[in-house]
Amino acid sequence: ALQLVVGQGAGRGQGRAMRCCDSVLWESLKGFFVGPICVPAEQDIDLLFFQRVFKNLCRQKEVRRIAFEETANCASTYGHPVAAQNLAEAEAAFGAELLDDGREAAYKEEKLPLIEFERAMVRLFRVLRIKSSIDVERYDIDGDGSVGWFEFCSFWKERSISVQLSLAERIFLTLEDPSTSRLGRIISILVFIAIVVSTGSFIMSTVPDPRIQDRCALQHEEGYDESCRPTPKRFLQIIDMVCILFFTLEYGVRLLLSGVVRTELCDRDYSQLLRWVTSDEIARTPSVLKRVCTFVSQPSNLVDLAALMPWYLEAASGQGRDNALIQLIRLTRVIRAFRLGRRFEAVIIIMRSLKRSVRALNVLCLNLCLGMIFFGSLMYMAEQGEWDSSRQMYMRNIGFSWSEDLDKWKSVTQRSPFESVPACFWWAIVTATTVGYGDEHTPTTPAGKAVACLTMIWSLCVLALPIGVIGGNFEKVWEEYDQEKVAERAAQARREAIIKQSKGFADPLYFCRAVFFEVWHNSGIAWPDTGKCQTEFLGQAECFLDMPPSDMVAKRRITVPLSSNFSQSNRRVSGHLTFEYSWLPHAKASEDMLMLGRLQFHEISAVDIVRIDSGRGLPTPYCEVYAMPRPSQDGLRRLESLRTAAIPETCCPCWLQPLGFDMLWSKAAACQHVEEGMRRALYHLEVAER
């Protein structure tokens, strides 16, 4: 797959593609060991969900406004109210207007009536089973009967809304979504292994060698039974039974819990909960029976059920090996392999390619059918032969043989395989698809050979066109899928930035406490044009320090692991970084001052830093320390950096050079920084999504 993608650009971007693949693989391997062991009972709803609620409510309000204005215009023009735009057209008009304006301060300008804000939050509390009341007028800061985005943020900050999951919901999430916990990923791997083992055991049970035959009486012996057939060996039957019991347990647990699980809270992005909260219609909670029916009717769960049923039908009938219907149903156990499709990207790409190539597939089938009928009829007329009334079949001449008795050549005839037009269809399909099984469907007459030549030329010219379209669609879908994954990673980075900004909104000193370290190798080689030293990345680390505004912290030591950054270097790093810091707060000059003091680093050291490929392989490392001593006015995270001296040729450096930052954070500046940062992050996220 990677060769296909890389080969398209004739080597262009090959290194970038390899780095991207390497980084994704490394991040996925690291992702297996991160996260909670089990699904936590309490999960906080981040500010990003509230941003989506606010955006949907604003969109609905704007859609209603556009539809009302268009209806009013039509009413004034034609004398009666006529809906000029439907809901989809109004939404499209709203989206185009938002993109044309490019309003970066859209969240500050948009306002929602208090009644819509109250309706959405009451629905949210009802689904989350929160019994506290909501005083919406409390959040109307300017008293205009509406709330804006930052008043939404104030509500989120004050209430600290979280999802309380029951034990049943936690077990269901563990089995249904492996990304929620490490235990879920382990169970997902076990299911994957069971699918492979079960499918393999079924395949091996059809091979003659792994099968045994019970001692059956021969045809001339007493007790002869025609139904005595080979059976798989015992160990294959045990493997199959164990896998079936495992699948039954996994499917049964999910089926039993599906009725009591709030599926609207099990979505990773809370999409169903978002629709319930923001919809104009009354949100009704599904009943237990409806939830179970919804679970059973899902395609993936139907595949699981179809894979389990044959084994139980065979066991219940007791004659599975003698019943033709049971034997046919038994073959459906290979459907279990389709569950692997949910875990492989190649299956997704193939399905998208086929969906996009429906028209080309229709043309392909039409050409095959037309060619099959036309050339099959021609071949019937050319190779039908002559009717032999004594044998009651068509006979054709296949050659000549020498007769010793007659002392001459005589014709050799055999039954014609082209005895009817439908019988010729098989030959037409095999020839058009260039398969050529080499069976008896071979023309022997000059006319038949001419028809075969025309069929092959026609198939090469006509069938190649739709097949080329399907191949082109496959290539486009592959490129689009790669771009989609890149866009998803970028969107995920933006969402993480919003979540980080929301933490800053909840705690104005969140960014003040963050410290960032980078370790670099000093090569001693300078760039000719700038004079700056050429460096290599050796690792990074981020840490949030304990810095009470009024209490001193003296020489506290912290150890953090060094992590890779593939945007800096395609290198997996190793080692740990240890630093010792002190925090000395100053007396506050005013009540508006949140943080005033000096952050001092006394010692920074590292162990087991990754080696490099120059000299003796030992790096000459130095460390850069980044902090945010004061908030910025534009919302950007503007860091100040200090740098240690380089220590030559060591993998365990210890920098004793003292470094310090003078921290100055006021309440007004911190709030402005957080608001501008949140507005900027949400604006860029919405532009990227649109």
Automatic annotation (TrEMBL):
The lineage of its organism: Eukaryota, Sar, Alveolata, Dinophyceae, Peridiniales. Keywords: Ion channel, Ion transport, Membrane, Potassium, Potassium channel, Potassium transport, Transmembrane, Transmembrane helix, Transport, Voltage-gated channel. One of its GO terms (biological process) is action potential. One of its GO terms (cellular component) is voltage-gated potassium channel complex. It is a multi-pass membrane protein. It is found in: Membrane. This is Ion transport domain-containing protein. It comes from Zooxanthella nutricula. Residues 185-477 form the Ion transport domain. It comes from the Eukaryota.
